[in-house]
Amino acid sequence: RHDFSKSGFSDRTVIICDQCEREYHVGCLKEHKMADLKELPEGEWFCTSDCCRIHSALQTLLLRGAQPLPLLDVDVIRKKCDIKGFNIGANTDIRWQLLSGKTADAESRLLLSKAVAIFHESFDPIVDATTGRDLIPTMVYGRTVRDQDYGGIYCALLTVGSSVVSAGILRVLGSEIAELPLVATSREHQGQGYFQSLFSCIERLLVTLKVKHFVLPAADEAESIWTKKFGFTKITSDELHKYLNGARTTVFQGTSTLHKPVTVPHVSSRETQGSR
């Protein structure tokens, strides 16, 4: 049903899952034996054990901090850089990590500011039609603007030493689906395998979280890269609606939605030889 109550606590009160961000009537939760709430819970609330499990795993990853890039991914970067005439030293520290603007400390906020700069290098400001505010920093820092809550967004980063070279905004909408609304690599590091390696880390994360589907919005000029290089395909609105099952993805004007099942990423011999 589409009606809801803003005053008091009743069956028509709406509660939102803190992981998948789906909205539920309190009465519907009770009717479907999902939860029998007597009042709005304090703190975080999750609609299913899957959402609770995913949230816990993501929080653990946040606390773990930057992780060394798997050797297979480092090898991809080294070989692509060799082909382009760039020298990556044997002791170069390449890492990836997940950050949340909601819980970021000063050091993490500095990294997020570098991610914002990379996104702005690649994209024009994404302006909210109502407020006129640029949504890129809003999403990266997980802020809330009017009725738009981006607190469930994480930022995946690839760093070389202290430099952020590639970034992606990630939102996990429960066990069925995750989305990657924005990705970018700094201009001086494009075509060197950095985002390919970061994407592999994100895919492996989704595999461990047991997420089934991966979607993203793609502009026409970027569509062939996602389909040919990363294995995405176009998805119809009906198919997307079925996967979302009440969740909402980020929509940008002038983009189409691409989809792929979440699978364990592999690196082919062609990729390690620097094919694009």
From TrEMBL:
UniProt xrefs under InterPro entries: Acyl_CoA_acyltransferase (IPR016181), IDM1_C (IPR056511), Znf_FYVE_PHD (IPR011011), Znf_PHD-finger (IPR019787), Znf_RING/FYVE/PHD (IPR013083)
A GO molecular function assigned to this protein is: zinc ion binding
Q: Which intervals hold domain PHD-type?
A: 11-48
Keyword annotations for this protein, in alphabetical order, are: Metal-binding, Zinc, Zinc-finger
Gene3D superfamilies named in the record: 3.40.630.30, Zinc/RING finger domain, C3HC4 (zinc finger)
**Ranges in a coiled coil:** none
Q: Which PANTHER family match?
A: AUTOIMMUNE REGULATOR
Q: What is this protein called?
A: PHD finger transcription factor
Q: Species name for this entry?
A: Elaeis guineensis var. tenera
Q: Which gene encodes it?
A: PHDF
